[in-house]
Specification:
The complex is a heterodimer. Chain A is an alpha/beta fold. Chain A has ten helices and twelve strands. In chain A, strand 9 and strand 10 form a beta hairpin. Chain B is mainly alpha-helical. The chains are: A alpha/beta, B mainly alpha.
């Protein structure tokens, strides 16, 4: 499964100010999406991360500034041409009632179709590969309404894949999935990135997943870019406090070695203070656990 | 060894295409189309049979063997007149009006992703009716003037609804809500006009409002026939972007469809179809509303335009036959029969919507 033109494309944002009606959501954002890598946009609720993704995928017209695709303003390019270079999976796409998996995936070929050139064998091969890769081939004849949440998300990713774009943007693709299906979807994205060097940008809620599954992190707070870089550099205890208003420990993920955020919360005791609502025994137990964590880091 | 999944540069784990995968996909996509084609053929046969019945039976029955020569003017003078002047235009009007209403309903319902969004519920046909009743009651006009008025009324109402619902693009949900509100206003206008009317005009207006195919001649066939001739290809061309719009605005924009532009074209086509249909036969109840969902259940596919039009044509043709024959010698307006079919469906839809908490 490869992209339609086999080239790598560059997506950048320049001095973006984003607003819904008059409400300003993000200000002065400039960034460059590293090509061939997985980038995660993280931040608290309503920090503007989904808005940024919408702007990057030209679903939202910026108030000021511009989004550049290979140096050209994305809003000035013909939208169908953009769709051949950049695919987007929105947060809540709608499957028409009764549509089958194969037909839904086939709609991803729309940007490659013209009224005089409708459906070709090449299109058929692309959608077949998209379904093979996402493990949805066996579901081909099933109506999308009848699938589980995880299956449905894989079908939507297959549709985005059928677009054959080098750039893929996904808005919270793991929301509403249980943990196993979240990991399944993220693994699939890594496969896609590795196989063809696809550039993938996704908004993720779960910071630990973001650390594990991305080369590049973009952290946002109240509409501004706070930090960007590899997860090891971006995710520190102070920064998590700044971005999420959350006290935490950052420890190495026991499986991958990437940073792992362990939230503290109000009821857990740190640094010898007495926890508000728990007895002494429990606090001793906690302290010893924390000791082990410290040793693990060292 | 501990390693982040994204840092591992090992070989790709992507599976390669199994040998029969292409066939699986081809088969899956063909199955749906084959069923739609079969349904289309069955509906066409149904239309042909009811069409033949419609021109053959009546107070003056004409055997089928005499119908065909009579259509081309080679029958006896009596059957020539009955077929060519009375029954043929009436049956053709039924087919064309039923098809146009159903097309219009199918486009609106798929655009809005809501079965309630048919032109007879969101005020398009109410606009046509208000204008027609105004012309009957206040102007005292007939025939062609009523048709023109109904057409203008439908168009004006559609434009009004579009602009009232517009806020950086038209959301489907707002379109339905605004439409239902406008329909309510227009219905009170109709009732106000009826209270101002003389009894004879009020009766004429009421029959028109029920929707009737009685006394339809070639002057009713021509406008709706020409419109269908022009708009049928337009609907087929617009079906492809409509399939993309069905995925929701964001996904459609992401796939590179000019969402607002195509939505405008589709609304324009759907309004024109509903307007000429109403102008020819009055606001025949519920054809636009019930035909597309029936067609969708028959074909089991996500977008049905041609099967919906065929269903609408068959529905109106059969309803008219029933309206003509059920209480002979009295003839009912066809709108009563379609209303009897449509109203229970609306109730069922509302009951079901309540249960699942959505518009269906």
């Amino acid at each position: 499964m490869s992209t339609d033109d086999g080239r790598i494309h560059l997506l950048q944002a320049q001095d973006l100010t984003l607003a819904y009606d008059k409400l300003e959501v993000a200000k002065d954002l400039s960034l460059s999406i590293p090509p061939g890598q997985i980038t995660c946009i993280v931040g608290a609720n309503a920090c503007g991360k989904s808005t940024l993704l919408r702007a990057l995928s030209r679903l939202l017209k910026p108030h000021k500034g511009s989004v550049l695709l290979d140096g050209e303003s994305i809003h000035r390019m013909p939208t169908k041409e953009v769709a051949r270079l950049l695919g987007i999976l929105p947060q809540s796409p709608i499957a028409p009632e009764g549509i089958t998996v194969a037909d839904l995936v086939a709609r991803g070929r729309y940007p490659h179709q013209k009224w005089f050139r409708q459906w070709s064998t090449a299109d058929e091969e692309v959608i077949t590969d998209a379904m093979v890769v996402t493990g949805t081939l066996d579901l081909a004849e099933r109506p999308v309404d009848e699938l589980s949440g995880g299956q449905r998300q894989r079908v939507w990713i297959a549709m985005a894949l059928a677009q054959g774009t080098d750039l893929m943007l996904l808005d919270e693709p793991t929301t509403f999935l249980d943990l196993a299906h979240q990991v399944e979807v993220l693994d699939l994205l890594v496969d896609l990135n590795r196989a063809d060097g696809r550039t993938i940008v996704l908004v993720l809620h779960d910071l630990n997943h973001a650390c594990r599954y991305s080369h590049h992190l973009i952290a946002m707070r109240q509409g501004r870019l706070v930090a960007e870089g590899p997860p090891q550099q971006v995710v520190t205890e102070t920064r998590v406090r700044d971005v999420f208003d959350l006290s935490c420990r950052v420890v190495p993920d026991p499986v991958t070695g990437t940073p792992m955020v362990v939230p503290i919360g109000r009821h857990c005791n740190i640094g010898g203070e007495k926890p508000a609502a728990s007895g002494d025994e429990q606090s001793t137990e906690l302290a010893s656990q924390q000791e082990q964590v410290h040793q693990g880091r060292a | 060894m501990q390693q982040s999944p994204v840092m591992d540069t090992g070989s790709s784990t992507l599976v390669s295409r199994p040998p029969d995968a292409l066939d699986t996909v081809r088969h899956a996509r063909k199955a749906g189309r084959a069923r739609a084609a079969a349904v289309g053929i069955a509906l066409t046969v149904g239309i042909a049979v009811s069409f033949a019945a419609s021109v053959s039976v009546g107070d003056f029955p004409i055997p089928l063997a005499e119908v065909i020569p009579a259509i081309f003017g080679f029958g006896s003078p009596d059957s020539d007149f009955i077929i060519r002047t009375l029954r043929l235009p009436r049956a053709l009007t039924a087919v064309l009006v039923g098809g146009a209403f159903a097309f219009s309903g199918a486009i609106f319902q798929s655009l809005a992703r809501n079965p309630l969004a048919s032109p007879d519920i969101i005020g398009i046909t109410a606009g046509a009716s208000a204008a027609a009743v105004f012309i009957i009651v206040m102007v005292g006009g007939g025939g062609v003037l009523i048709s023109l008025g109904a057409f203008a009324g439908a168009l004006a109402t559609a434009i009004l609804i579009y602009f009232l619902a517009y806020r950086q693009g038209v959301s489907a949900y707002r379109l339905v809500l605004v439409g239902i509100g406008i329909a309510a206003v227009l219905n009170s206008v109709i009732w106000y006009l009826l209270t101002r009317a003389q009894i004879w005009e009020a009766q004429r207006a009421t029959i028109w409002l029920t929707g009737s195919l009685n006394g339809r001649g070639w002057e009713h066939v021509r406008p709706v026939g020409l419109t269908m001739l022009v708009l049928f290809p337009a609907v087929l061309v617009l079906a492809q972007p409509l399939r993309i719009l069905q995925l929701g605005d964001d996904a459609a924009k992401g796939l590179g469809a000019g969402v607002e532009r195509y939505r405008r074209y589709l609304i324009l086509v759907a309004v024109a179809l509903a307007a000429v249909a109403t102008a020819s036969a009055g606001p025949v109840a519920f054809v636009a509303f019930v035909a597309p969902p029936i067609a969708r259940r028959l074909t089991n596919s996500s977008l049905t335009l041609v099967p919906a039009a065929l269903t609408g044509a068959l529905l109106l043709l059969v309803s008219d036959l029933v309206a003509r024959l059920a209480f002979r010698p009295t003839e009912l307006p066809v709108g009563i029969i379609t209303g009897l079919v449509g109203a229970p469906y609306l109730l069922w839809l509302l009951a079901r919507a309540n249960k699942v908490g959505s518009g269906g």
